[in-house]
Amino acid sequence: MHRQDLLQLLQNYHPKDENERKMVLETQVFVQQNSLCFERSLPSGHVTASAWVISPDLQQVLLMHHKKLDRWFQPGGHCDGDPDVRRVALKETEEETGAFGQLVGNEIFDVDVHLIPANAKEAAHFHYDIRFLVVADPATKPAANAESKEVRWVSMSDVPYYNSSESILRMQRKILASV
What we know:
The chain is of the alpha+beta class. It has one domain (about 5-179): Nucleoside Triphosphate Pyrophosphohydrolase (Alpha-Beta Complex), CATH 3.90.79. Helix content is about 30%, strand content about 30%. Strands 1, 4, 5, 6 and 7 form a 5-stranded mixed beta sheet that branches. It has a 3-stranded antiparallel beta sheet with strand order 3-2-8, with no helix packed on it. α1 (about 5-10) runs antiparallel to α2. The N and C termini lie far apart (about 30 Å). The model has no long low-confidence stretch (mean pLDDT about 95).
């Protein structure tokens, strides 16, 4: 997989609302204009990959409490040069939660562009997050790593109590609409 593969995935993806449609277009332009789009060293931003990990019955989602950002999110992270965003999403899920999941299809589940605030190590920059739907067994106890304070299976209906950002609620709505 390389930039053309990601661009093809984005071309085939059908966003659910106008806001997400704009972010898909932003991501396409960013990837087309930046040959180093998968590299964390690109100062303006970079492609990241994450997973919305759900239980087989669609009633639970796996969330992690991110140490640096002190908020609950889906597992995911930097591509670090790997253009295979599916592989990155699964790898990050395993590393950050201990969960071994399976992709639900090969297509994109969600796209989000968000600003990462400046910190002591880097200037503010954008993450162009490519998200995949992953199913995992909630009977397997999740395990936090150095990047997370805690990892927990959460009832799908309780997601807004953990993170009420539009980015997270959009993914929740997509699952609830399919139930």
